[in-house]
Design brief:
alpha/beta
Length: 154
């Protein structure tokens, strides 16, 4: 199982659904200081900070969704890592076993609808190949228009 102890600012921002500029502003104002700042000025955040911030109702009431294809070899590891990272946070794991993707009867279709209904704040794809190029374009467009972060786990 992969355990990340420190998150660089870009990954941390994506995981909590805010921009890196928001994290820099929070650092400046004292709302959330990075756990560690390198000699070169890179900010890093901890698991404890991630869990505390995700549990903060002031950030968002929307859920985090992990998406994985059923035929991916890392399915079990992905589920375990998601459960560990987002412990105590509204989390759904969507596993699709339909191929090709039928948007009316698939987890991806449900995910798209939840994004449109403002129920999702972060989507974690198990790999960059979890969805086809066309579906990734749709996901990226929805994410941009509905304030959702998309993160690639591997």
């Amino acid at each position: 199982m992969i355990v990340i102890k420190r998150y660089p600012i870009g990954l941390f921002a994506s995981l909590v659904g805010v921009t890196t500029q928001t994290l820099r502003n929070w650092d400046k104002s004292g709302k959330l200081k990075p756990e560690f700042v390198s000699d070169t000025g890179y900010r890093y955040y901890s698991d404890a900070q991630l869990n505390a911030l995700l549990g903060d109702t002031g950030v968002s009431q929307r859920k985090i969704v992990g998406y994985c294809r059923a035929d991916e070899p890392c399915l079990q590891e992905f589920k375990e890592t998601m459960a560990q990272l987002y412990q105590g946070v509204a989390l759904d794991i969507v596993v699709d076993d339909t191929f090709p993707i039928d948007l009316e009867n698939s987890g991806l279709g449900s995910l798209f609808l939840d994004i449109i209904k403002f129920k999702v704040r972060v989507v974690v794809l198990s790999t960059s190949d979890s969805v086809s190029k066309d579906m990734r374009s749709v996901l990226d467009l929805l994410a941009k228009n509905f304030d959702v972060s998309v993160v690639i786990w591997r």
